[in-house]
């Protein structure tokens, strides 16, 4: 073995460079996963804030609209809303608003789904191609 072969460090330099690039790639992957986790964990919080903002703006718009009503109209609307809420509470309805059942036969009443029977054909005809 010659002196130049004994002191050749190119394979060590190559391995070191490869390990360094792998370390950089792993750090990038860890950073990417950490940012993804923060986004996933923060999504409900952000959506809650957006919903709060929309509800607050809708509430303020309705307050301005009702503020422009004459006195008896606002009082009558409040009484009608209270009567509606009492009706809902007394009927035992578990959800807010009027429930509609798409499978109900009569509005407000649930029932079995109607099944239409297909009549059987008396005779099966063979149709031949011309």
Can you put this structure into words, describing what you see?
- With 130 residues, the protein is an all-alpha fold.
- 64% of the residues lie in helices and 0% in strands.
- It is built from 3 helices and no strands.
- It has helices at 3-6, 10-67, 71-91.
- The radius of gyration is 37 Å and the shape is elongated.
- The protein starts with a helix and ends in a 39-residue tail after the last helix.
Rg over alpha carbons: 37 Å
The helix count comes to: 3
Which runs of at least 5 residues are low in confidence (pLDDT < 50)? Answer: none
Number of strands: 0
Structural class: mainly alpha
**What is the chains' assembly state?**
single chain
The general outline is: elongated
Strand content: under 5%
Overall pLDDT confidence: 81
Largest sheet: none
Gap between N and C termini: 92 Å
Q: What is the string of SSEs from the N terminus onward?
A: HHH
Which percent range fits the helix content?
55-70%
Q: Could you give the topology of this structure?
A:
Elements: H1 3-6, H2 10-67, H3 71-91
């Amino acid at each position: 073995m010659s002196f130049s072969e004994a002191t050749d460090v190119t394979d060590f330099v190559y391995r070191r460079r490869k390990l360094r690039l792998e370390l950089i790639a792993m750090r990038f992957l860890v950073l990417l996963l950490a940012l993804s986790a923060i986004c996933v964990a923060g999504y409900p919080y952000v959506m809650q804030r957006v919903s709060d903002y929309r509800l607050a703006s809708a509430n303020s718009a309705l307050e301005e609209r009702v503020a422009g009503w004459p006195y008896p109209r606002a009082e009558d609307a409040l009484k009608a809303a209270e009567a509606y809420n009492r009706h809902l509470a007394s009927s035992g309805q578990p959800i807010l608003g009027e429930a509609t059942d798409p499978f109900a036969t009569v509005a407000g009443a649930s029932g079995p789904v109607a099944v239409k029977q297909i009549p059987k054909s008396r005779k099966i005809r063979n149709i031949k191609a011309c």
